[in-house]
């Protein structure tokens, strides 16, 4: 099996991911074609893209006192076929200091096809100075599937607030789900 990457694993490069899920490709894509190297790399990219799905994950921190967190936040997407495993939300497209009060952060998550999105698990590691976090909602857009789902939370992820949980399983709000042509 061949699992080529051809992508950065760095917060400050590419899409900011430091972990990548690699998909196996045919041996022919890996063998160096000296006359047509650029073309085989482009074909390899298309082959990998066909086997994976890119999700845009928007996370809204609530506008309450001490709502932001300095802890490391993670998410797992669960679909009808599989799940993504734990994905660290490291590089926000909008904010260098992420998960701050009243702010929205956007992340890219790539995965093999997990099927229709059924639920998510989101939480943090409770490390840092101010770890408590008030999560308003999570929105996940999957253009290749033609779906945008909203996962309302409106609760604390804090050992000393609410029920003391620092991770939550959240289901999509059907009335806030948008379907469009993939």
TrEMBL record:
SUPFAM superfamilies for this protein? Lipase/lipooxygenase domain (PLAT/LH2 domain) (SSF49723)
CDD domains (alphabetical): PLAT_repeat
Pfam families for this protein: PLAT
PLAT domain: residues covered:
1-23, 53-171
The record ties this protein, via PROSITE patterns, to: PLAT
InterPro entries named in the record: Inner_ear_hair_cell_LOXHD, PLAT/LH2_dom, PLAT/LH2_dom_sf
Q: What name appears for this protein in its UniProt entry?
A: LOXH1 protein
Q: Which organism is it from?
A: Oreotrochilus melanogaster
